[in-house]
Design brief:
By secondary structure, the protein is α/β, with parallel strands linked by helices. The protein folds into 2 domains: 73 residues, Urease, subunit C, domain 1; 202 residues, Metal-dependent hydrolases (TIM Barrel). The protein is 32% helix and 17% strand. The chain contains 8 helices and 11 strands. The protein has a 4-stranded mixed β-sheet with strand order 4-3-1-5, with no helix packed on it. Strands 2-6-10-11 form a 4-stranded mixed β-sheet, with no helix packed on it. A hairpin with a 4-residue loop joins strand 10 and strand 11. Helix 4 packs across helix 6 and helix 7 packs across helix 8. The two termini are 29 Å apart. The structure holds zinc ion. The site of zinc ion has 5 residues, from loops.
């Protein structure tokens, strides 16, 4: 693909710097130049739109895109499960997310089907089988751990900062459980637990930030209604600032995924995962058909 220039957008580059009106040149799926417009190549007019790097969701469950109860009781066919996964993958891209980390043991075929362009979706980094803490939502061994026991935020955060362990809070899933417990396919009794979780997560975010922990962003949405993925940024923006939420979803998440400088930033050499936004919708333009290999 020849060079193309995106002209006129207000560019927020993912670094936390103030927006600018720089011209972006892309070629062969990568950003090649910032600044000076040239006469060569296609010219894309983005006047009035805001450009960000493709967003990154560092905690997704594409594999849990079907109604949870029938799915877990094996009452849905493999074909239907695949159709639901692909629908979620396309909706994720349409929501402006061009990279996701799947923490739920997704079928590797989903990753390659998207990477080969057979279905629309974001670049998927798969973590393999689920691992979780006692009481986490992948834990089926015993009752959940009461949030009242989560009293050691400070010492945990200090240890995480010292060991360079990143935190990826996931407020969107908790918000969903609070407002539509049945819609998420779960018992109403979950709601009270979710209230405690939200309170403690808000505290944990503040403590972790103060301790200097690297803090990314994830949604952890499950089930068929994964259309509020961007809501995680709104929730974080309310607890921090909009720019901090955006940087968490771009540059910081890229670092956590071992993709620093490749995604999550608008800089020469990076993948041309670019999203244009207006007030009511997003338009994703991914010039890169080939996903990069994670460096770690
Ligand atoms: Zn999860």
């Amino acid at each position: 693909m020849g060079p193309a220039q995106v002209v006129g957008a207000t560019v927020i580059d993912g670094s936390g710097r103030d927006p600018s009106n720089v011209v972006i040149t892309v070629e062969n799926g990568r950003i090649t130049q910032l600044g000076a417009s040239s006469a060569h190549g296609e010219r894309l007019d983005a006047e009035g739109l805001t450009m960000t790097p493709g967003l990154i969701d560092a905690h997704v469950h594409l594999g849990l895109s079907s109604p949870i109860q029938p799915h877990f009781s094996f009452r849905i066919s493999a074909a239907e499960i695949a159709a639901d996964i692909f629908a979620t993958a396309g909706a994720t891209l349409d929501a402006g997310f061009t990279t996701v980390r799947d923490t739920g043991g997704i079928d590797g075929g989903v990753v390659t089907a998207i990477a080969k362009g057979k279905v629309r979706g974001p670049r998927v980094l798969s973590c393999g089988p689920v691992q979780c803490q006692i009481g986490g939502h992948g834990y089926y061994g015993a009752a959940w751990e009461p949030t009242g026991l989560w009293s050691s935020h400070q010492s945990t955060a200090t240890l995480m900062a010292a060991r360079e362990v990143a935190l990826v809070p996931t407020f969107a899933v908790v918000e969903r459980l609070l407002h539509d417990t049945a819609g998420a396919g779960l018992a109403e009794s979950i709601r009270d637990r979710a209230k405690g979780v939200r309170e403690q997560m808000t505290r944990a975010l503040a403590v972790a930030k103060h301790a200097g922990v690297r803090i990314g962003l994830g949604s952890d949405l499950i089930g068929p209604a994964q259309d509020r993925r961007g809501g995680e940024l709104s929730l974080r923006a309310a607890l921090e600032t909009p720019m901090e939420a955006l940087v968490a979803a771009t540059r910081t998440n890229a670092g956590i995924l071992g993709l620093s400088g490749q995604v999550g930033v608008i800089t020469p050499g990076a993948q041309a995962d670019l999203v244009l936004w207006n007030a009511t919708r997003s338009k994703t333009r991914n010039f890169s058909p080939t996903p990069p290999t994670p460096s770690s």
